[in-house]
Every structure is written in structure tokens, then in C-alpha cells.
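A quick aside before the break. I want you to see a complete sequence-to-structure record at least once, exactly as it would be stored in a machine-readable document. Don't worry about memorizing anything.
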Amino acid sequence: MQYRRLGNAGIKVSEVSLGAWLTFGEKMDEKATAECVGAAIDRGINFFDLADAYARGEAERVFGKVIKAYRRSDLVISSKLYWPMSDDVNDRGLSRKHIMESIEGTLRRLGTDYVDIYFCHRFDPETPLEETLRAMDDLVHQGKVLYWGTSTWTAAQIEQAVGIANTLNLYRPQVEQPRYNMLDRHIEAEIMSVCASHGIGLTVYSPLAQGILTGKYNDGIPEGSRAAEREWLRQSIEENIDKVRQLTAVAQDLGISMSQLALAWILRRPEISSVITGASRPEHVVSNAAASGVTLDEDVLAQIEEILGNAPQ
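That is the input. The structure line, written in C-alpha cells, reads:
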């Protein structure tokens, strides 16, 4: 496993990380979670990404039990807040009240004194940005959060946050977590350059485009599968399957899996700190972790670019 800095910060995260969305505490019980976390740590993965909204807190609770077997300082743990956790009118968003109460719930469920990274899961148009930044700055000063970041914010919103932080001498966001993969390259247009200019790292999610870039749909969509039941996913598969089949052939020529090719392609960009993968079985973790260190030469990258034909203009 290779490691990268979180933007210009001193902390280093594994190139491939393990996320908990739709898995820990939902599809997976404590035993299955422990097996995947153990496989990740054995392969050098140190970054684990969660959110209070994942399985309504259950992901954090299950992960908190599992990590008791490991030394806390060896792990980089992130969580997020924004989405409603109850029907209460204030139990949502990025108000000072919600931020201060949410971090306490997250720390309690994880069984730890701090999180390494705390993300604002979305931008909150109903809360003054200065209020959000002052609350996050306070959490850093209190030692409950080491670094804070944004998730799925626009380039303009990130710029505004950095500007306010600089003016008020507050801790700036250190990381953005956007969606990014071979089929969705929107962050290349503005977000990558804005983050790079401010020393902000990128930890990207959905690197395999909901499984499309694993190649598992190359022979069709199985009846009863998630893709068969979701119109938007089925449509995306149909629109991109020819590209994925061609990319699978490229991966085979390189002696790697389609998933590893997709992850290595993301890691070609120096702006990326880590690619967040999901896994429900240890063998998935092992396969994904092997993408770290895979180098795609210029000829291969050019071939991929020709197949994709979707570089932002």
C-alpha cells in the first residue's frame, strides 16, 4: 500500500480506503465488518470513511466495536454530518447546534475521543457559512476533530469557505469528498484545480460507478439484481457497457482486473489523496487494495481516453 498526504497537510492516508456506505451495519453484521476491516488493515489500508447517516448511526456503532481490537492512532477515521438523524427540526444541516450535537453522537457511537476528519456532508444554504466554519474551528481547537472537510460542495462554495477562514483566521477545510470515476469526471473542470490551489486533498467516492466499472454487467443485467430494479442504474449500464467491455480488455492485457484499472486510473491524478471503496467481502478489499501502486503508462492512458471520450472541455 502506498500513502499520500491529505492535500498539503502532514497526515497521510492510504491510496485506497474503505468506506461504510450501504455496508457496515446495513448489509453486513459485526462479524462481516470485522473481517473486511481486518483484511483492509492487513493490506495497509489506514483510512476508513463513515457518516452518522449511514444506517442511521449503526455503521458507526458496528465499526466502533470492531476497532477496539486495533490501536486507535494507527487509524484515520472520518465521519460526516448534515442529513437528518431524526424528525426534530434542528437535527439536520450545518448549524452550530447540529454540528456540536452531532460530533458527540458520532464519538459516542465510535467509542473514541476524536475523529481524524469531519466532513460537512453537503452544503447548507440555510446556515450562514461563517457559523459553520466557526463551529468546525471550535471542534478542532477542542481536539474532537483533527481536520475538517467538505463533501459534494461546488468549487465556488469551497472558495467561499477558504476565503472566510482566511479572513477570520479559522481552520480551513483540508479535504473535499466528491464523486469521481471514469464515467463521471465533472470535478476535473473546476473542483480539482480549486482544491489544488488551496492545498485541499480529494478523497473520492463511487470510484466504480455503482459497480458498472467492475465489469460485472458486461454479459448483461441479472434479473432481480439492484441494477434491474433501478431505472437510472440500468440506463447508465446500457449507455456505457460498450466502453466498459473495451476497458475490460485493456485491463486483461495489463494483467489486472477491471476494478483495479478503474481505481488506478483515478489515482493517476496527483490531486487525489485517496479513493474510497466499498466492500462486503474480504476478497473485495484485497482486490481493491492491490490497485495501489499500479502505474498506467502514457500509451495506456491515451487508449483509455480514446475509449472514454468524455474529458471535460
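Two observations worth writing down. The mean pLDDT is 95. Residues 3-211+264-294 form a domain with the TIM Barrel fold (CATH 3.20.20.100). We'll return to this after the break.
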